[in-house]
Amino acid sequence: MMKPHTKTLGLALLLAAIILGVALVVRLDLLAALDNTLAQRCTGVIAGVLVMWFANVVPKKISAAGRGLATRRAVGWTMLLSGLGYTLAWLWLPLAYAADTAMALLGTGLAYCVWRILRCRADRTNRGQV
Amino acid sequence: MTNLEGMNQVFKALSDPTRRQVLALLRDGPLSAGELAGHFDVSKPTMSAHFTILREADLIESTRQGKSVVYCLKLSVLEDALLGFTSLLGSRLGNPQANKKGR
To answer: How many CB contacts within 8 angstroms connect chain A with chain B?
Structure first.
């Protein structure tokens, strides 16, 4: 079994390697060899995957002893599906529509989450639980 | 690997119909150990073992309120989806009539 500090150290080294790798790619201008649209799509896909990653763990990490459970689940699911839509839009749509569609999907998901959180807070205020 | 062990614990926890039912009951909100045990026809030690497995898999969390222990759900979105999938699969495999109707 891997010790916790060994795992943390490994993760830190991996992150350092990624940062150094990206710096090297920029320094040597390796992206110039790639098509500009491909770089744009890659950036969009990475951003979408990051949104999905964080949306997946949000309901587990923000645990408040069962309070607002339905809201946390709704927010997690909404953001994960929005992230998936964002990723797929950048993957498959023509570049002219990809950015607008992806942002519209993410914006709609975010707006729905904000509405759910505000409604949850209002319900709790009405019940005098703040 | 810690992550693989964690995944094994999640799959082990979700493989049992009683534990899946416990998670389904907790979807509606936190419940005490006694309230949860009331839904099942099993002994207290067995129920306690189920709670331990769920807690070790990090699918539920417990808080002590006075004399009772209150459990609440602690699922990531993927674990939630996995629970839904295993429940669906489990109910269909466990009920041959439903399988026949579905065909």
So the answer is: 48
Q: Which residue matches tokens 């729905």?
A: A112
CB–CB of B80 and A7 under 8 A? no
Mean pLDDT per 10-residue run, chain A (130 residues)? 72 87 78 73 90 90 70 92 95 90 95 92 72
Distance of CA A91 to the CA centre of its chain: 16
Q: Predicted ipTM?
A: 0.75
DSSP, collapsed to helix, strand or coil, labels residue A67 as: coil
B102: which 2 tokens? 């579905």
* DSSP state, residue B62: E
Residue B68, beta-bridge partner list? B65
Apex A15 CA angle, A12 and A20, nearest 5: 125
Q: How many helices and strands in chain A, by DSSP H and E? A: 4, 0
- Identify all chain A residues contacting B1, using CB atoms and an 8 Å cutoff: 2
